[in-house]
Amino acid sequence: MAPIRRLVLDVLKPHDPSVVTFTTQLGDLEGIDAATATVVEVDENVKTLRVTIEGDDLDLEAVRAEIEDLSASIHSVDQVACGSRAVDDPWVDS
Questions:
Q1: What is the CA radius of gyration of the chain?
Q2: What are the tens digits of pLDDT across the range 71-86?
Q3: Is the CB of residue 29 less than 8 Å from the CB of residue 66?
Q4: What residues are paired with 50 via a beta bridge?
């Protein structure tokens, strides 16, 4: 099976932990070279994030477990890039 190079996730998280703490903890996972979280929406009790993770061979279940340990949940997997490199999507990345 081709290795996963990039995941873009729609994540719902409580206000605590902070977005900084949440993202740095994801970035500390083995196999993750980079993690970015963008706040998309803020409600009274939660934030919706677009989380982008890149690495050489990402483990979606390990990422999911860490997100759940941080009291958050994945609403959807919005992009997956697999193979020897990640391909930029011209419809999204332009």
A1: 13
A2: 999 999 999 999 877 6
A3: yes
A4: 10, 38
